[in-house]
Amino acid sequence: MDGLKFSTPSGIGEQLRENPKGSIPATLPAQMDQAFQNVDAVLKFAGCEGGWTRVYTMTSYHVGLDEDHKKEMLRCMKQWMPDHQPLWTMVGVERLAAEAYKVEVAVKAI
C-alpha cells in the first residue's frame, strides 16, 4: 500500500476504501457493512439524495468468493435496497488493493 493514494469523496463517483477512522474492519460482515455505508455516503455527497435507492447497477469484487460472501451481500442489499435490486455482477478476485480487503463495491446511480 505504500505509495498508493485513495481519494476521499471529493467528486462524483469516488469511493471510500476504509471506515472514517482509517482502519479496515476485520470480519467479512463488518467489511460489507462498511462498504455499503461508504457507498451510501459517497452517493449522497455527490448529490444523489436517495442513496442506494438510485443505484441501477452494481459490481462487487470478492477475495475468497464463497457462499458466505453471497449471503452477506444479499443481507446488505436487503437492508440498503429493500424495495429494488439493481443489476448485479459478483466477481471473485485474487486480491484487492490491500491484503486485508475482502470486498469492494462499485455502483452506478442516477
- Topology, number of strands: 3
Strand order of the largest sheet: 2-1-3
The arrangement of helices and strands along the chain is HEHEE
How much of the residues is beta strand, in percent?
A: 15-25%
Distance between the ends? 32 Å
The secondary structure category is alpha+beta
Helical content stands at 25-40%
List the quaternary state of the chains. single chain
Mean pLDDT: 85
Task: Explain briefly what this protein structure is.
The protein is an alpha+beta fold and 110 residues long. Helix content is 29%, strand content 21%.
Could you characterize the architecture of this molecule?
This protein is 29% helix and 21% strand. With 110 residues, the protein is of the alpha+beta class. Strands 2-1-3 form a three-stranded mixed β-sheet, with helices on one face. Helix 2 links the parallel strand 1 and strand 2. The longest helix is centred in the first third of the chain and has 18 residues. It is globular. About 10% of the residues have low confidence.
